[in-house]
Specification:
Radius of gyration: 35 Å
Number of domains: 3
Oligomer: single chain
Structural class: alpha+beta
Number of strands: 19
Helix content: 25-40%
Shape: elongated
Number of helices: 21
Strand content: 15-25%
Length: about 600
C-alpha cells in the first residue's frame, strides 16, 4: 500500500465528495475526487465540501452576504443582485484561491481617492487584511502533504457527518494506513473550509468596495439596465473605474489641483495680522509675510520674497483678488487680508465638496440645461457637455430674517439651490411685488407719497396679509425685472430675470437681490432658450419686446435649470481655480447643501 517517492506523481488519488450524503461502501462512484485535487488548494474541492456540509452553495453564500456587506442598503442590494445574477460565482478570487489583479486595482484606485479626498470607504482595511490572510493560508495549505504515500486511494465524505470522511482503496485493505489518511483528510477539510470562508468574504467585500466606489463617483451607473451584466466583464477595470468620473471641465481642473491643496493643508500656513493696508511701494515685515503667503499658494514666484511691495507683488495680489471675487486693485485691505487668511484646509474641503457636486448632480446626465452657481455669481448655458454661453448673475443677499428650510438654517434673502425646468419666458414682464419687499417700500412712500404713481405701480384686487391691496409695476426702465423673465416651478418664488441695474454686474461680489437671480445679457440667454425650446417664437422676439405690456411665451420643450452652491470652480480660460467660497455660511459644520427643491420628473434625474 505504501509507495516509493518515484511512484508519488503517478499513483496518488483522492476521494470524491459524496454530494448526496450517502455512505460509500468500497465502490468508487462519480462523486469521488482524486488525491491531487485534494492536496492542492482548489476552489472546486472546497465548494464540494461546502455543498456536502451545508447541502446548498446558495445558502452558504447568502449567509456570507448577510455578514460581509457594508451597512449601506443601496450597496447591499446592488451586490446581492450582482451575485444572484451570476449564480454566486467569485469575481476576484480564481480557482486556485489566488487573488486576481482586478482586486489590487480596486484597492489602489480606492486608496488613492481615500488619501486625496478624505473619503472613508468602509471595508477597505478588511479587504487588505483578507488578501494577506488568504495568501498565508494558501501557503500553509500547499506545504502540508499527506503523511504517507498512497496508491489508488479515494477519499469520500461519510454519510455519518461525525465520521466526516472515509478512505476507499482499490488495492489491499490497511486499517492503519486508512486511519492515518483519515486524520490528515479531516485537517485538510478544516483548512479548506477556512480557505473558502476567507475567499468568499474577501470576494464579497471587494464587490462591496467596488460598488461603494461606483456609488460615490457616479451613483447613476448603478441604475443603468446593463450594469449587472457588465459587472466582472471589464477589458480594463482601472479604465472603467476612472471612466465613471465626470467629464465636466470644471471637475477635471479641480481634480488636477486637489493634490496640491491636499499637501498644502498640512503645511504651516502664514497668516497676516491686522494692520494698515499694504500697497505698492511699501516695505517691511508685513510685506514679507504677504509675499511668503502668496508664494505658499503659488501666486508669486519664490524668489520674490524681498520684503518690498513691487509690481510683481501687486500683480500677484490682483490675480489672487480676481480669483476670490474681490476688487482687483492690488491693495491688501481688510477683505483681501481676510481671504488670504482662509485656511488651506478650508479650501481643500471646498474643492472636495465641489467635486462631489459634479459627481452626484443629476445634471451630469442632462443633454441641455441652464446652470447657475451662487458662490461664483455665474450662469452657464450648457449643451452636449459643453458651455455655449457664460453670463454674470446677481444672487440673493447673505442677510435677512433667519428661517429654516429643509432642516437647514438660512436667511430670508438667500437664493436657494434647486433643480427645475424653465417652462415660460415672459417678455416685458410686470413686477408683482412680494410681501416682504412691499414692506421695504414704506420708506419710499414716506419720502414721496406719489411714489407708486410715478413709478408705474398698479393696485390689484388681492391683498397682503396686513390688508392693503397688492401692487405690481408695469414694464419700464425702472422695473427690476428688466425686459425678460424666465419662469420655473419652485416653492420659494425664485425667478431668473433681466435687471434695470446692469451696473451691478461690474462688481466682483454680486449678492444684492432678495433671492431672485438677475442675469447679464438676459436677451441673449432668451434667444438660446427659445432656439431650443420654441424656435418659432424666436423670430417673433422683437415683436414681444415692442409691446407695451407683458407677453407670455410657453416653451414647447422645457429647459432644465440648476441652481447650485458650489464653492470652487475653474477659470474657463486657463483652468485655474476660482474661489467663490461660502457667502451664506452654509458649509460650516454641516457640509454643502445640495438642492432645496428638485423636480424629479425631469429626464435623467
Amino acid at each position: 500500500m505504501i509507495a516509493g517517492g518515484s511512484r508519488w506523481s503517478l499513483c496518488l488519488v483522492c476521494a470524491l465528495v459524496l454530494l448526496l450524503g450517502t455512505r460509500l461502501h468500497g465502490v468508487i462512484g462519480a462523486e469521488c475526487l482524486k488525491l491531487e485535487e485534494f492536496i492542492e488548494p482548489r476552489f472546486s474541492t472546497a465548494r464540494s465540501i461546502v455543498v456536502f456540509s451545508e447541502n446548498s452553495w446558495t445558502v452558504y453564500f447568502r449567509s456570507h452576504l448577510a455578514d460581509d456587506l457594508p451597512r449601506n442598503l443601496d450597496v447591499q442590494e446592488a451586490v446581492k443582485r450582482i451575485y444572484e445574477s451570476r449564480k454566486f460565482q467569485l469575481f476576484f478570487v480564481d480557482g486556485n484561491f489566488s487573488v486576481k489583479p482586478s482586486a489590487r486595482i480596486i484597492i489602489d484606485v480606492v486608496s488613492r481617492m481615500q488619501n486625496l479626498e478624505g473619503k472613508v470607504f468602509p471595508g477597505l482595511d478588511q479587504v487588505k487584511r483578507g488578501i494577506v490572510g488568504l495568501k498565508r493560508l494558501k501557503q500553509n495549505f500547499t506545504y502540508s502533504p499527506p503523511p504517507v504515500f498512497a496508491q489508488n486511494v479515494h477519499f469520500c465524505f461519510s454519510g455519518n457527518k461525525a465520521e466526516r470522511v472515509q478512505v476507499v482503496s482499490l488495492l489491499e485493505e490497511d486499517g492503519d494506513f486508512e486511519r492515518t489518511l483519515v486524520v490528515w483528510a479531516q485537517k485538510r477539510i478544516d483548512l479548506y473550509r477556512h480557505l473558502i470562508d476567507i475567499a468568499t468574504s474577501l470576494d464579497i467585500r471587494l464587490s462591496g468596495l467596488l460598488v461603494q466606489y461606483i456609488k460615490y463617483v457616479n451613483p447613476f451607473e448603478l441604475t443603468k439596465a446593463d450594469y449587472i451584466d457588465r459587472f466582472g466583464h471589464w477589458d480594463s477595470l482601472e479604465n472603467y473605474m476612472l471612466s465613471l468620473e465626470p467629464t465636466d471641465p470644471h471637475f477635471i481642473s479641480l481634480k488636477k489641483i486637489l493634490p496640491f491643496y491636499c499637501k498644502l493643508k498640512d503645511v504651516g500656513q502664514i497668516f497676516l495680522s491686522d494692520g494698515p493696508s499694504l500697497k505698492e511701494g511699501m516695505s517691511g515685515e508685513g510685506v514679507l509675510n504677504l509675499q511668503r503667503r502668496l508664494i505658499q499658494e503659488g501666486w508669486l514666484a519664490k524668489e520674490k520674497a524681498t520684503g518690498f511691495f513691487d509690481s510683481d507683488t501687486k500683480k500677484a495680489v490682483k490675480r489672487f483678488q480676481s480669483a476670490h471675487f474681490l476688487e482687483s486693485d492690488g491693495i491688501v485691505g481688510p477683505k483681501t487680508r481676510r481671504c488670504l487668511n482662509i485656511s488651506f484646509a478650508t479650501k481643500y474641503r471646498w474643492i472636495v465638496a465641489s467635486m462631489d457636486f459634479f459627481r452626484t448632480c443629476p445634471c451630469r446626465n442632462f443633454p441641455l440645461y441652464v446652470w447657475i452657481n451662487i458662490p461664483t455669481f455665474s450662469l452657464e448655458f450648457r449643451k452636449g457637455g459643453k458651455t455655449v454661453s457664460v453670463h454674470k448673475v446677481v444672487v440673493g443677499k447673505p442677510t435677512g430674517r433667519p428661517i429654516r428650510v429643509k432642516g437647514k438654517n438660512i436667511h430670508w434673502n438667500n437664493t436657494l439651490p434647486l433643480i427645475s425646468e424653465i417652462k415660460t419666458i415672459v417678455f416685458k414682464p410686470r413686477w408683482y411685488v412680494p410681501e416682504r419687499i412691499r414692506k421695504e417700500m414704506e420708506r419710499d412712500l414716506q419720502k414721496n407719497p406719489h411714489y407708486f404713481e410715478e413709478e408705474g405701480f398698479r393696485f390689484m384686487n388681492s391683498f397682503y396679509s396686513w390688508g392693503e391691496p397688492r401692487v405690481y409695476q408695469l414694464p419700464g426702465e425702472t422695473n427690476p425685472m428688466g425686459r425678460v423673465k424666465f419662469l420655473f416651478d419652485n416653492p420659494f418664488g425664485i425667478f431668473l430675470h433681466d435687471t434695470s441695474q446692469p451696473h451691478l454686474f461690474k462688481k466682483p461680489f454680486r449678492a444684492f437681490s432678495h433671492g431672485c437671480v438677475r442675469v447679464e445679457n438676459a436677451l441673449e440667454l432668451a434667444k438660446l432658450v427659445l432656439k431650443e425650446g420654441n424656435p418659432k417664437a424666436l423670430s417673433r422676439m422683437q415683436k414681444y419686446l415692442a409691446k407695451r405690456d407683458q407677453s407670455y411665451v410657453p416653451l414647447k420643450k422645457k429647459i432644465p435649470i440648476v441652481i447650485s452652491y458650489v464653492p470652487v470652480l475653474s477659470d474657463m480660460s486657463n483652468g485655474s481655480p476660482i474661489f467663490g467660497g461660502d457667502p451664506y455660511g452654509w458649509l460650516e459644520g454641516s457640509g454643502m447643501p445640495m438642492f432645496f427643491f428638485c423636480n424629479r420628473r425631469l429626464s435623467g434625474f
